Amino acid sequence: MTEHADHDHEHHLPPKSSVKRWLVTTNHKDIGVLYIITSLFFLVAGGILAMMIRAQLWTPGGTLLGGQGYNQAVTSHGLLMVFWFISPFAFGLANYLVPLQIGADDLAFPRLNAMSYWVYLFSGLLFLTSFFLGSSLAGGWTIYQPLNVPAFIPEVNQVGSLATIFALMLFVAAVTMGSVNFLTTFYRMRAEGLRVRDMPLFSVSILLTVWMMLFAFAALLAAVILLSFDHLLGSVWFSTAEGGSLLWAHLFWFFGHPEVYIVFFPALGVMAEVFQTFSGKRIVGRKWFVIAMALVAIQSFVVWMHHMFLTAINLPIKTIFMATTIGISLPFDLMVFALIYTLAKGKIRFKTPFLFSFGALLLFILGGITGVFLGAVVLDYQFRGTYWVVAHFHYVMFGGGTALIGGLYYWYPKMTGKMYDEFLGKVHFAMFFVGFNLLYFPMFVVWETPRRVFDYAAEFTMWHRLATVGAFLFAASFLVMIYNMFKSLHSGEEAPDNPWEYASAGEWAVPSPPPLENYPGVPSYAGGKLSFLTRSEAADGGTVVEQEVAGTEQTAPDGGAIAHAGAAATTPTTDYAEELALEDEHADHASIWPFAISASAFVTFLGLSGISKAYFIWPFVFATGFMVAYFGIEGGRREGFGWIHPVVMALGGAIAAGGAYLLAIDKGGLGAAIDGASVYFWLTTVGAFMGAATLTQLGFEEFNVPEPAIAEQWPFEAVSNVKLGMWMFLGSDVILFGAFIGSYIFMRVGHGWTDWHHDFIPEAHVVLPGLINTYLLLASSFAVVLALVAARQQNRRRLLGYLITTFLLGVGFLINKAVEWEHLFHLHEGAFADGWTFTTNIASSSFYITTGLHGAHVAVGLLITLYLIVRAYNGAYLGEEEADTIEHFGLYWHFVDIVWLFLFPLFYIL
Amino acid sequence: MASTRLYTVIFVTLMAFSTAQALFEFTGILDRAYWFALGVIMVLSTIKATLVAGYFQHLVHEPRSITYLIAGALVGVLALTAGAAYSIL
Ligand code: HEM
Ligand SMILES: [Cu+2]
């Protein structure tokens, strides 16, 4: 251990005993641990709410919490468990293990990984804060509409409910960053010889999970962004009589059904691995298992309307979705049979991880069968809104959770270097399993109990009491677990590299806990088993590559094949001599900015929750001015002053001053403006300034992450990590903007496509401003293309020129838009005598919000352009590789352009 | 990397198509043959988007798998839009 500690020091990473270490670390193992601990914290938070719910249900119509309190408890319990506990718990394991399993030394983007974690943590804190801001959302975790827009919930405090929505938004941001990071890692950093399909099954399950996350969460993001505008600006997306409520259901469940697999897949991966290890058998039909999983991942996007059987959607579509739902249960059956058959064939050792995984399988089977009932339209008419649903999804979801807990026991020795106490583990399992069934099974029996209501028929009382007793037993079992983990950390037996006979995935070939850099050399599976390549200098001055087979046991790529090999072999080879660096390329592992940026986001969104519509934009205007000026200051300070720096600083000052001037006009004097500002305004402003400063620091920070010299990269060999990451991010943005556009189309179809224009849109809304903006944006895209050419040709002056052109065209776009909006806001035309604003009708809401969000993307792009200009002035980005940054920015900018190419006809012409 | 000349041709095409789209409204074709105009306008937008993605973002020179990634996202969100719109017809 001391050796590792010293090693850590070399990388400017404080020791694990210091708090600072945990604030700055970007190492995947540290962050994995942080995720696990944080998710358990939210499990406790959600669990306490659950106990209150069960206590209230001790008698029909209990009074412990009061109506509003009960609704909040039910809603928050659901949100906390689904979002802040279960997936982050799985991703704690994934963070720790995926790089070890695939032979990478970290995730592709370590700072982004830290950012995901911190944003996740702060999103959860914002969620918890919402309780203290009056009231958090109280309409159920599905946040159905219009029951959660302000007009329909006068009793719910607006600040708290908006804070809840923002918490979700931040959470989704964290998830998206994480998905991009994992996908890039999976596709670009596998050890030599490791094919995607041969990865250990836990890694396979995580790969499929992050694919679903990337796409599904973008739809949720779209939904909560629209909802936040309904709260903040009074737009009418979800309160519109024709379709607002259905729009939410579609967006939410398009996310929601994949989400249930997002929750369950990691559990499936754990089950597969634990079963293999503790039965000593490779999973039966492995290939089909993987294919089935991939099929389910795809199918999960076409079953969402089975959650909408009781809405106004038409019968043909219900039938179609009933069929697709049956379709998705088929591959699932296959997986379940493969798991069962593996056990039947093997010789089982009943250790704690196995018990939990096996329990999970039983629970899941019961949950799955009851789900099939719900998937039948006719039966669902009966079951919807009852405790049948509650019981079903707890069996499936927490069935998954059960396997994940098994995973925690399984990998605990790897992460801590200590064995857990087996006896206490078994006690935990016994209490857990009995408690679980005592808690949830009665819900099937008295399924006629209405869901989310604390009243029920008196004859059900006995069953509900049984459930409550079960709940307390269940909760108590976790105390045993926590005690076990703490105690073992101090006084547990030392764990060897591999405490489990037959475990053969990559993580078991390195010490427990693994050193910072994971492997003693470059891992390779080229020979069919894990070995480590190191290059050393030969006596004659040449180089030899030594290959050392990992451990004494053979480590198989897929962690499945089991055989005992002889002693370690050392085979000198020379194939890689060129690519293996003699000395480790320096890699950075510490940055404070992910933490600082996330903290700023917390403050900003806390402020936004209570800011009034009239003040909403100003903190961002001022912060933008500050950020621009700060670019000038930091750029000059770090890279040497030139004429560009004072110009940029002046520009920043002008933006801020101009903002102050406009604000003063708007509010009748600067004094009046300041007097009218609430504490929330100041919070937002402080948060936005912090964000501007910390993001700038992150931009200027030197942070070196070497890409692996030798790696399996199918099917993305020819792109760099950053470029692939950028495209992954754009993939999710396609869904985000697609969902905005889709929402508009849906609402317009709902109203009657061709009546829309006549009914909702003023004459003054004409084509010309849109056409001009199309020209401007296309020209700016062209300028970026030329900038890239100039950068590649190492022509600094032309690079600067084109970047500045891009900037000016973009500014022109925004000014033109501002003029147009200003005009429309203040119309005095027939039907729109009070102007055409956010709140006027669904057409105005969708126009302003969709094009406004696009405009925000333009504004962000312009900030980046300014940053690029400052750096380019001092000679950055010149050369083939150096120009990559310009290229990556271009990908974003052209994407924004493409979105506009559809917004223009849809919102201006048709 | 394609040549600056190709980029220029594409840029001019993009500007021309955008103008053409607006002309449907200016000339009143949109009022007379709404659905026809809608079809043509959306096709033009799709071509424009393809040009930008293919050449400005140079997808044509990247591994095909990146195109599949974006196509996958597009198919997903079209399924959402089409399914949702159909469900209320
Ligand atoms: C054979 C597989 C499954 C089928 C056929 C199925 C079917 C259904 C159906 C039709 C509903 C809607 C019930 C209603 O609201 O009336 C539902 C609800 C639900 N299912 Fe499943 N399900 C399956 C597996 C899963 C899995 C694996 C999970 C999670 C890991 C899950 C989680 C949920 C949740 C959370 C709800 C409740 C949503 C809400 O709050 O309204 N299901 N299921
Ligand atoms: Cu579902």
Task: Describe this protein's structure.
The complex is a heterodimer of chains A (910) and B (89). Residues 1-9 and 561-574 of chain A have low confidence and may be disordered. In chain A, helix 11 (352-375) runs parallel beside helix 14 (422-445) and helix 24 runs antiparallel to helix 25 (842-873). Helix content of chain A is 66%, strand content 2%. Chain A has 910 residues and is an all-alpha fold. With 89 residues, chain B is an all-alpha fold. Chain B is 83% helix and 0% strand. Chain B has helices at residues 4-26, 29-32, 34-56, 64-87. In chain B, helix 1 (4-26) runs antiparallel to helix 3 (34-56). The radius of gyration of chain B is 16 Å and the shape is flat. Chain B starts with a helix and ends with a helix. The mean pLDDT of chain B is 95. The interface between A and B is large, with 66 and 49 residues. Residues 142, 260, 263-264, 306-307, 325, 329, 332, 368, 371-372, 374-375, 380, 383-384, 389, 392-393, 396-397, 400 of chain A line the site of protoporphyrin IX containing FE (HEM).
Name a few traits of the molecule.
heterodimer; A: 910 residues; mainly alpha; Cytochrome C Oxidase, Chain A; Four Helix Bundle (Hemerythrin (Met), subunit A); 3 domains; 3-stranded antiparallel beta sheet; 26 helices; 66% helix; 2% strand; disordered N terminus; B: 89 residues; 2 domains; flat; binds protoporphyrin IX containing FE; binds copper (II) ion
